[in-house]
Amino acid sequence: MTIQENVSLRPFNTFGFEAKARYFVEVQTPDELRNLLLDPRWKEVPKQILGGGSNVLLTQDVEALVIRIGIRGLEIIREDNEYLWLKAGAGESWHNLVLHCVQNGYAGLENLSLIPGTVGAAPMQNIGAYGVEIKDVFEELEAVEMHTADLRCFDTAACSFGYRDSVFKRALKGKYIIVSVTFRLRKQPVFHVSYGDIQKTLADMNVQVPSIEAISEAVIRIRQSKLPDPAVIGNAGSFFKNPEIPQAQYEALRERFPELPGYATAPDTIKVPAGWLIEKAGWKGYREGAVGVHARQALVLVHHGGGTGQQIRDLAEKIQRSIEEKFGIRLSPEVNFL
């Protein structure tokens, strides 16, 4: 475990922004992480955790010890006739985990194919797509308390999952570092194909009988058709959350915008697609120097090269003001700002 100084974080964020970490280290095991946190030389130094860098906006140099989580490993820890429980290291690639499950017939994660980032970041965000969220397949996670280096187990209730949310983004923000996540996966799949374009894409693929392999491939095709590859153009995927608004507000907006989509998520609560709002306000395909809004998906802010994280932040704030003025809705970012 080597601690480096003044390290460029450009390779470690999918926007591709240049920023430097005052100190930088990658940990490979939970014990390495715990020893680092207990080391008196680093005890009082501010710390920042980094996974895949796919959900972070670097707006400045990071005057802290940046700890990149490189903890790997996949292990079936128990199984019964219906389920198996798969434990994954927090540093594993999320998409590689999904592919591993699909290839081995472990059902439950196939709708979450091609989401960037690492396993450890997934429960923090309660990532979700096409009708499935982490909380639907989650069993427990292990996390290290940053101050004491104690290892603690969190079950579903303790994580307090919400829409793209968990206790680790609220009361326990910055207090724990996730080192492993255990998923409860089905041996006999229950398919989720009613959300988005999955059924249409399966039909285009000439799939008569669904399978987790086919659903994963369909989701990959849909995401590739809508979302830019960070290797080609810098981005962090969906930049804003889909807002949830009172049904009365939704119905009032429908009088002005009859085509406004919405999905009931709770009694008297409607989720509205943020991408639709942004596109309707005229931002789709907008470019401002080195940054802009993707031409095919208005929910994605992009970095064309040579720009800064602050420029993306400024653009995001302009979009927020515009949506609030036009629709009376305040968009919240999914991306974490540093």
Automatic annotation (TrEMBL):
Taxonomic classification: Bacteria, Pseudomonadati, Bacteroidota, Cytophagia, Cytophagales
Gene3D superfamilies: 3.30.465.10, UDP-N-acetylenolpyruvoylglucosamine reductase, C-terminal domain (3.90.78.10), Uridine Diphospho-n-acetylenolpyruvylglucosamine Reductase, domain 2 (3.30.43.10)
Active site residues of this protein: R164, S238 (proton donor), E334
Pathway assignment: Cell wall biogenesis; peptidoglycan biosynthesis
Keyword match Iron-sulfur: no
Organism field: Rhabdobacter roseus
Protein purpose: Cell wall formation.
The protein's name in its UniProt record: UDP-N-acetylenolpyruvoylglucosamine reductase
Gene name, Swiss-Prot/TrEMBL: murB
UniProt entry tagged with the keyword Cell wall biogenesis/degradation: yes
